[in-house]
């Protein structure tokens, strides 16, 4: 079992509870990791035998474009979409950081970390 991670994905989005956040937007930084069995790919050296990082990134970006009020909901949407899209994924962890959040003080970011396991098929 391997753990694959996409670090420091920078995206601009319109997520938040405040009307200004939904209109003006801000930058977000995402870290995504997932587990999958890579034993076949380790032997074949063929991208078809593993999860393609480009496809993962494109799924994240597409899911990120749908605005959410809460970082928790955004993280859940990303996890669920990745698990749906990539059957080889055993689990998915997402950290979403909102950079420069409008909290009336100075801080670099606020973040939510969510980890979701694939539900076994019945």
Tell me the radius of gyration. Answer: 16 Å
- What is the CATH topology? GTP Cyclohydrolase I, domain 2
State the domain count.
1
- As a percent range, the share of strand residues is 35-45%
Number of helices: 4
Helix and strand run: EHEHHHEE
Give a nutshell description of this structure.
The protein contains 4 helices and 4 strands; from the N terminus they run βαβαααββ. It has 122 residues and is an alpha+beta fold. Strands 1-2-3-4 form a 4-stranded antiparallel β-sheet.
How would you describe what is shown here?
The protein is 32% helix and 35% strand. By secondary structure, the protein is α+β, with helices and mostly antiparallel strands. The protein has a single domain (2-117), classed as GTP Cyclohydrolase I, domain 2, CATH 3.30.1130. The chain has a four-stranded antiparallel beta sheet with strand order 1-2-3-4. The relative contact order is 0.21.
Attribute tags:
GTP Cyclohydrolase I, domain 2, elongated, 4 helices, alpha+beta, 122 residues, four-stranded antiparallel sheet, 35% strand
Task: List strands and helices in order, with pairings.
Blueprint: E1 2-13, H1 19-24, E2 26-36, H2 39-44, H3 53-64, H4 71-85, E3 89-99, E4 109-117
Helix pairs in contact: 3-4
């Amino acid at each position: 079992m391997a753990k694959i991670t996409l670090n420091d994905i920078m995206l601009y989005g319109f997520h938040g509870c405040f009307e200004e956040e939904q209109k003006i937007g801000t930058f977000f930084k995402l870290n995504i990791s997932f587990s999958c069995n890579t034993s076949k790919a380790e032997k074949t050296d063929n991208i078809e035998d593993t999860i393609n990082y480009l496809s993962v990134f494109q799924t994240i970006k597409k899911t990120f474009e749908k605005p959410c009020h809460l970082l928790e909901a955004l993280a859940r949407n990303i996890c669920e979409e990745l698990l749906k899209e990539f059957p080889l994924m055993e689990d998915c962890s997402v950290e979403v950081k909102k950079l420069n959040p409008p909290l009336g003080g100075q801080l670099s970011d606020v973040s939510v970390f969510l980890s979701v396991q694939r539900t076994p098929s019945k």
